Amino acid sequence: MSFPQVTPLTVTHTLTDVDSGLHTEAWTLDSRALATDSDIPWSVAKQTLKGGMQEGVECVDVDNGALSFRILPTRGMGLLRGQYGDVRLGWDSPVKDPVHPAFVDLKDRGGLGWLRGFNEWICRCGMESNGSPGPDVIVDNNGNEAEVLLTVHGKLANTPARTLSVQVSTQDPVTISVTGVVDETMMFGPALRLTSTLSTEAGSNMLTIRDRVTNMKREPAEFQLLYHCNYGVPLLERGSKLLAPFKLVAPRDATAVGGVDGFDRFGRPQPGFVEQVYFYELVGKRGSGETVVLLRNAKGDAGSSLRFSLKSMPCFTLWKNTAAKEDGYVTGLEPATNYPNARRFERDQGRVPVLQGGESWETELRVAVHDSRKQVRAVEAEINGLQMAARATVATAPLGKLSPV
Question: For residue 25, what is the DSSP state?
Answer without folding.
Answer: S
